[in-house]
Design goal:
alpha+beta, SH3 type barrels, 2 helices, 5 strands, globular
Length: 90
């Protein structure tokens, strides 16, 4: 399975910001072993168009955002202070 390239050159260039990111836990990585690690937290970026196709925009191991099947991840609800700490670490 080939990963889909980012529709955006830079996540920051289109108005997205780290404050709008959410976090997901990777639970599958079939077809993407170099890009995704299972049991690892990833940042996501909002992408309504991708969501309509059951895809999620994730900042992967390359540091770029790409589309992946949404069922490869579990959404996490983190306390605000944890989100802040994780955002600063990136």
């Amino acid at each position: 399975m080939k990963r889909m390239a980012s529709a955006r050159k830079s996540s920051k260039s289109n108005g997205s910001s780290r404050t709008k990111t959410s976090f997901v836990l990777c639970v599958r990585n079939e077809g993407y072993p170099a890009s995704l690690e299972t049991r690892k937290l990833y940042f996501t970026l909002p992408d309504a168009s991708a969501a309509k196709h059951n895809l999620i925009r994730v900042i992967d191991e390359s540091g770029e955002d790409y589309l992946y099947p949404a069922d490869y991840f579990v959404a996490l609800r983190l306390p605000a202070d944890v989100k802040m700490a994780l955002s600063k670490a990136s």
